[in-house]
Amino acid sequence: MTRYLFITGGVVSSLGKGVASASLGAILEARGLSVNLMKLDPYINVDPGTMNPFQHGEVFVTEDGAETDLDLGHYERFVRVKMTKANNFTTGRVYANVIKKERRGDYLGGTVQVIPHITDEIKRCIIAGAGDVDVALVEIGGTVGDIESLPFLEAIRQMRMELGRQRTLFIHLTLLPYLPTAGELKTKPTQHSVKELRSIGIQPDILICRSSHPLSDSDRSKIALFTNVEKEAVIPLPDVDFIYDIPMALHEQGLDRIVATQWQLPEVKPDFSEWTRVAQAYRHPVGQVNIAMVGKYVDSTESYKSLSEALKHAGMQTQLRVNIHYVDSETLEHEGAAARLKQADAILVPGGFGTRGIEGKLLAAQFAREQGVPYLGICLGLQIAILEFARHVAGKVEANSTEFDPATSYPIVGLINEDAADIGGTMRLGGQTCKLAPHTLARQIYGKDEIIERHRHRYEVNNDLLPDLIAAGLVVSGRSTSNLVELIELPTHPWFVACQFHPEFMSTPRDGHPLFTAFVRAAAKRGQS
Fold first, then answer.
1. How far, rounded to the nearest angstrom, does the alpha carbon of residue 188 sit from its chain's CA centroid?
2. In b/e form, how buried is each residue of 71-100, taking b as 16+ CB within 10 angstroms?
3. Contact predicate 154/115, CB 8 Å
4. Active site residue 504
5. Residue 252 reports pLDDT greater than 50
6. How far apart are the C-alpha atoms of 325 and 346, rounded to whole Å?
7. CA separation for the pair 2, 267 (Å, rounded)
């Protein structure tokens, strides 16, 4: 029988509920339990697919093709469970489901209300998404007190009443702000946050208190007294410089022991050997590399969360400290590529949508190709590499993507349908098979003939015009099962690879990803030359 662990947040948003949830999932997994994680988002968008990365951060893509909240990326990086469409749902999706049922006549003419119909749908989604695992960790997005999250909180309150304490547990994550003028942490915001939670019928069993300074024993006692939470269940979580230390830090504070005690689980010592190895690799690098990430959302690094983490994972696999330098592609249009990129050991151009900053990305790809700097293009980064090669090597100066110029006379990139060569198609999403060409760098990197990688894009390389580029020296090293370009490389370059898919979604700290590992090694080789 699945047990449900609900994680809520208070005081401020962006406290790290996703990382805390994932870390606890990692601890329970290390104890031999099967786990699953879910994120319930209170916004009315059906999914975050069309939301601005500046507002929401990156969109994570699951293998079954769901566009989800970035916290699902944290889940996959901390536990060995692949997320699906069932692991993330929003207020918009819940209401869409209920309205669809109402239109179909499922409610037999009754008045459809938040309680019980919306809350019943939320509970149904939670139970269906959890599956048959030992423990399902359910993170409620937003901050307690927000009007948007009330139906989710009411639904989990009802689940406590229906399933009892032996199958449910509430964890509340809060912030203890530090006032330099007073020289102390303030507990009052946490007290008020718990009061707000209790006013809607939820008494937290455990508090996790984020802070920039250590939590004193007297403050811990004070919080316990005013929140009706046992003192040992007030878990301090000071800021750390390495997020993959958090599972062991929470274990040392006794978090999993408290969970095990409430649920009467067997006492098992967690196996943290893999996490210890990850921490050792991070803390004891034998060298470092400088990688320039040329994008247009660099003012919010959350926009490239999986990418930055994948580069760090590659550093752990190679015992190198990866220093990521975020470069706004628009600045290259004014300052030139050499001025901003000459110190880089490697250049990465990530995915994106729209025309802003495109010329700067083209300059970055051109600089990497001409100067022999290792280059990794991802999604749009592949299309940029194709355009740059077509214009400056194949002599097709008019080459463009129909995304940037619908009237271009040489549409080397366009809306090419997956099943035909006609322009006009839809978003390719999720895991798809890619066949690798023999005797290529890509085949050498992956060590296999076929791979499965995750996609999120509409535009494809136009196969009708590709022969011109192949004749000029471009190598297509990977194709989809329907013959669309997935990987390209330049054999005359030290290391120039671009892919149509998003390999960052498959990278984890324990295993890394072969493409990023090879990229970082190439950067190190250039740095030593």
1. 33
2. bbbbbbbbbebebbbbbbbbbebbbebbee
3. yes
4. yes
5. yes
6. 10
7. 18
Cα–Cα distance for residue pair 427/459, rounded to 1 Å: 8
Taking the mean position of all CA atoms in its chain, how far away is CA 155? 26
User: How many residues in total does the chain contain?
Assistant: 529
| Residue 382 CB neighbours (<10 A) | 28
- Separation of alpha carbons 197 and 188, rounded Å: 14
Predicted confidence (pLDDT) per residue in 404-440, tens digit: 999 999 999 998 653 444 433 467 899 999 999 999 9
- Which strand (E) or helix (H) includes residue 115? none
Per-residue pLDDT of 317-354, as tens digits, reads 999 999 999 999 988 988 888 888 999 999 999 988 77
Asked if pLDDT for residue 502 goes beyond 80, the answer is yes
| CA dihedral for 132, 136, 139, 145, sign (positive or negative) | positive
User: In the block, which residue shows the tokens 């601890």?
Assistant: 27
Q: Which amino acid is present at 8?
A: T
Which tokens in the block code for residue 189?
């915001």
Q: Which of 379, 434, 493, 513 is catalytic?
A: 379
Give 122's strand partners: none
Residue 186: other Cβ atoms inside 10 A? 15
Strand ranges in 189-255 using DSSP code E only, listed in sequence order: 206-211, 234-238
Distance of CA 333 to the CA centre of its chain: 29
Q: How many CB atoms lie within 10 A of CB 351?
A: 22
State the Rg of the chain over Cα.
25
Q: Cα separation of 418 and 406, whole Å?
A: 19
Q: Is 365 exposed, middle or buried (0-12, 13-18, 19+ CB in 10 A)?
A: buried
Annotation says 502 is catalytic: yes
Structure tokens at 69: 């909240």
E strand or H helix at 37 = strand 35-41
What would the pLDDT profile of 399-409 be if each residue is shown by its tens digit?
999 999 999 99
Instruction: List, for residues 16-37, the tens digit of each pLDDT value.
Output: 899 999 999 999 999 999 999 9
Task: Please work out, in degrees rounded to the nearest 5, the angle formed at the alpha carbon of residue 70 by the alpha carbons of 149 and 21.
Answer: 65
CA distance 133 to 423: 44
Strand partners, 416: 423
Query: Which of 259, 246, 187 has the alpha carbon at shortest distance from 216?
Result: 187
**Maximum distance among all alpha carbons in the chain?**
75
| Rounded Cα–Cα distance for residues 83 and 222 (Å) | 39
From the candidates 74, 251, 455, 502, which is the catalytic residue? 502
3-state helix, strand, coil in the chain (%, to 5): 40, 25, 35
The pair phi, psi for residue 275, each rounded to 5°, is -70, -35
* Amino acid (one-letter) located at 238: P
Q: What is the pTM of this model?
A: 0.91
**Other CB atoms closer than 10 Å to residue 284's CB: what's the count?**
9
**Bridge partner residues of 40 (DSSP):** 89, 140
